[in-house]
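Input (structure):
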């Protein structure tokens, strides 16, 4: 589904170049729920933004559903973003003037077509994520967890190859975080969704199939869940502690 090989990205400040991603290799399979963790500044958002076609990168390969991103025009990249990817952000990014149901349909409105089929899918997503009862409410009238479940539903309305989420539980309490993680799990189980999530929250990450640890722009370690959730969280915390001690 996603294949990243030797990805390198630097930021230019004045005439200086600061390397941020220093040769990232990773792959995500269809219907996998993968988290990326790492200290602040380790390059997590930069990695996500490269995969999202938001920022250019110097070296390496990113392939999404078999399509190579390097060399695509701005127009082609916009098409990948709109048709192949779904996005979930820390601060929800819902439109205040639209209802929950309308927000879910926004990617279709942008494409200029809201088919009967899209409306049916929106209703299925509302039901799958337990937010049917708030379909006609506005973002200001619902909780943070409900807003983020709305955003997860919106990310799925175009039936993307993959959902990219940057700190989706970063603004939520633990109960709302759980509701959002369960939305991802349901999307995976019932819609074969693939989710790639950046998080600093070991609780959220412990629900994933696999966790990639990033340090100083490189993949430090990859942990696959083999045990139950709480044991996996303990193993994650131990690996993060070990990583932080290796200065
Ligand atoms: N647009 C930018 N211009 C220059 N430097 C940036 C830019 N975005 C991020 N950085 C720097 O790149 C490094 C990695 O940032 P980021 O990918 O946001 O890390 P993370 O999400 O893991 O906290 C940091 O040192 C950050 O200051
Ligand atoms: Mg970040």
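Output (sequence):
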């Amino acid at each position: 589904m996603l294949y990243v090989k030797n990805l390198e990205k630097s930021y230019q400040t004045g005439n200086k170049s600061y390397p941020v991603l220093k040769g990232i290799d990773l792959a995500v399979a269809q219907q996998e729920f993968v988290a990326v963790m790492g200290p602040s500044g380790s390059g997590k958002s930069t990695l996500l933004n490269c995969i999202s076609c938001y920022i250019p990168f110097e070296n390496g390969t990113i392939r999404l559903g078999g399509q190579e991103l390097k060399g695509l025009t701005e127009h082609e990249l916009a098409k990948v973003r709109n048709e192949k990817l779904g996005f979930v952000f820390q601060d929800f990014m819902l439109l205040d003037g639209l209802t929950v149901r309308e927000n879910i349909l926004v990617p279709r409105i942008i494409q200029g077509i809201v088919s009967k089929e899209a409306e049916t899918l929106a209703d299925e997503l509302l039901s799958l994520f337990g937010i049917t009862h708030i379909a006609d409410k506005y973002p200001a009238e619902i909780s943070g967890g409900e807003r983020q479940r709305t955003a997860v539903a919106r990310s799925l309305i175009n039936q993307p190859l993959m959902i990219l989420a940057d700190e989706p539980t970063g603004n939520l309490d633990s109960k709302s975080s759980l509701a959002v993680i369960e939305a991802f799990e349901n999307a995976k189980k019932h819609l074969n969704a693939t989710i790639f999530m950046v998080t600093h929250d070991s609780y959220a990450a412990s629900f994933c199939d696999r966790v990639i640890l990033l340090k100083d722009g490189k993949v430090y370690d990859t942990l696959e869940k083999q045990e139950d959730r709480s044991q996996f969280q303990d193993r994650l915390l131990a690996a993060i502690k070990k990583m932080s001690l290796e200065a």
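Notes: The chain has a mean pLDDT of 95. Residues 44-45 surround magnesium ion (ligand 2) (CB under 6 Å).
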